[in-house]
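Re-run requested by the PI after the first attempt was lost when the workstation crashed. Everything re-entered from the original request form. Ligand of interest: adenosine-5'-diphosphate.
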Amino acid sequence: MKQEPLTSWRGQEPAETPVLEVRDLKVHFPVTRGAILRTTVGQVKAVDDVSFTIAKGEVLGLVGESGCGKTTVARTILKLVKPSSGQILFDGTDIWTLKGAAEKGFRRRVQAIFQDPFSSLNPRMSVREIVGEPFVIHEPDMDRDAMDRRVRELLELCGLPGRIGERYPHEMSGGQRQRVGIARALALNPDFIVCDEAVSALDVSIQAQIINLLQDLKDELGLTYLFIGHDLSVVKHLCDRVAVMYLGKIAEAGDSETLFAEPLHPYTNALMEAIPVPDPKTEAARPHQVLAGEIPSPLDPPSGCVFHTRCPIAIPQCQEDAPRLEEARPGHWAACPVVTSGRTNPHDLHLAAPSPPQVSPANTAAGPTGR
Ligand SMILES: Nc1ncnc2c1ncn2[C@@H]1O[C@H](COP(=O)(O)OP(=O)(O)O)[C@@H](O)[C@H]1O
Ligand code: SF4
Ligand SMILES: [Mg+2]
């Protein structure tokens, strides 16, 4: 078992330069008081020492409760937020060193799809204008016919009829609007897309259609995704590897199949057990690990292991020592020495959970929080 995590938690150094590498990322937002003489009274530790890599063609899932820092990671990768420390490497280059044409190239190659297509699309612009806008900004010499042709192609690629270009966002369904958001993200032929809760606002059946579309586009266009979500069943379907975040830190990470089959960290176990099973009888009979209390404030995170205030198997040492990600099995990392040292079998975790108050699955971490 390794003591020191690699900057990536892939378990091995990747054979080729990853498309994206996030190294020891910290994003701390200062909290200030006073309207005129602003004084810093604290720091919101939104992201605290996060590292991961994403290889070309891979889908990495980032999951966790609302407020754990997922969007801040996304915004930092998109160069919308400056890291307090750490690095974001895109194709091996620190994105904060990019200038001029290299910066422009980065802005074309990295695109985003957000949760609420309605609020991210300008209601006064037609679909044709929305999808064509990246060309107006990045390819001002493109003539009108070529742009219209390209917009139609993009809409059709995303499963929409080309004629929908004349409509406005309020004239479309949520699923159609998200397809427009995807078409716009694809306009400049990106190779990396950050999907931040891209399907969270959609009905379940529409979610499945959009996930299938994202999967098909990835295969067809050779895309790489960072897929942020709070619904573990959606993440499981699309992602090759998954990182579970808690209060600005990665609690567990590994390939999707292993992580879902054999979760190690007590937090991941709680998230898994909160996913309702469709059959009501099975659902009623199965044990639920209790995830007590609210997520603590990142302004004043708990000492030691940040999860210790809610952890069913915490020991006194957990209040003192901040655990680091350790490779418990090849490619499967967890930040919990109590589990990785073999002291507790993660599959018995529900037995160690305290008795009531029970939290119903809908109120626990994989429920509606995170939207
Ligand atoms: N610009 C900001 N200034 C201060 N605090 C922020 C800012 N952006 C996010 N935060 C705080 O950082 C934490 C993480 O937020 P966020 O990254 O949006 O989490 P998530 O996407 O997982 O819900 C939250 O406590 C949030 O309030
Ligand atoms: S280190 Fe301690 S508090 Fe943290 S998850 Fe493990 S057992 Fe729980
Ligand atoms: Mg978010």
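Saved to the shared folder this time. The chain has two domains: 20-115+197-363, 117-189.
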